[in-house]
Amino acid sequence: MKEFVKGLFEKNPILCYLLGLCPTLAVTTNVINALTMGLSVIFVLFLSNSIISLIRKIVPHQVRIASYIVVIATFVTIADIFLKANYYEMSRALGPFIPLIVVNCIILGRAEAFASRHGLVPSMLDALGMGTGFTLVLFVIGSIREILGSGTFLGMKAVPGFFPQFLVMILPAGAFITLGLLVGAHQALKEKRGRLPAGQEKRGRP
Amino acid sequence: MNYALIFIGAAVVNNFILTYFLGICPFLGVSTDLKKASGMGFAVIFVMLLASAATWGIYHKILTPYNLQYLQNVAFILVIATLVQFVEMFMKRFIPPLYKGLGIYLPLITTNCAILGVTLFMVLKDFDFIESLFYALGAGSGFLMALLIMAGIRVRLDSADIPAPFRGAGIALITAGCLALIFTGFSGMMK
User: Fold this and answer.
1) CA B141 from chain center: how many Å?
2) Considering A35, A166, A194, B110, which has the largest number of Cβ atoms within 10 A of its Cβ?
3) What's the structural domain count of chain A?
4) Total-model pTM
5) B32 touches chain A (CB under 8 A)
6) Listed residue (B138, B182, B178) closest to B154, CA to CA
7) From the list A65, A76, A175, which residue is nearest B73 (CB)?
């Protein structure tokens, strides 16, 4: 259970390690794109972490990164083809960002840092936790940008008509600024939480 | 003329970092000083050119004739990883000064999404061989430019008085946001 929870807030891959920023910023112009990306990443991360944890004793140390990349690329291709076959519009909207999950550092990072050293069950939980943490952040950024930028939430009208729409939130600039503010808020929250119980552990900047 | 348009389009109008968000990790990682930034930038241009030439050949001469386009992701990432390894060994052996300059940045490039991004966009936009090279050159130059601008700003940010939680990554992202806003000014230049 510990392996699952740590990915959600304390060691959130996006806010703490700044991993996997490309999809985080690129696809969060609305909530539905963000969720699709999040679910694809959970799918790939879960399966690749499981497989890598199973083969970790067979793969020679020198070629492990290349082998991990092949495993990851296989699952990414499955996800890509699945989206193309069943949700063509969505696959068009996400463009090359689904294939780009291959180089999403979260996935290779978890494979190298966790799955290659732990058994099957902890690796699965770790993947689910990290994936959920990732999706959560994507959902938050997607919501902020969609509500402020186009005044809708999941395509439905969300704000009263007189409320202005900030075009900048849909533009790339809005993504950077939203994420910057979130990282700052996360850092501030963590510092506050860390200080309450005796304040013995002091963490560096991310 | 067409080639010039592709180059400018990739470098300025659709800057890879600031509008496609590709290569953000090295963008935030090495933009802390100008020397590192320029080393990384040139290494990226170099690998991008080679990678797009290689993947263009593989996609159009091997995958397409045999209807294997669905292997695109696997094939491209393997080509890029191999290429980076190969370039590193070649430079170490034959051009030591260049290796000293770029060497440490090369392994990092394998996981730079900008490289895979260039090759994927190249397939998506259906470029011919020469167009692909200009596209890669433009994307790489745009990457270098954004990296240098950011490094220049971050040197000054070090001495600025920033609220504690925002130091480091937070303020870097917000700065990138302002840069991206400036770059949207170019978007009217091309359709």
Assistant:
1) 8
2) B110
3) 1
4) 0.81
5) no
6) B178
7) A76
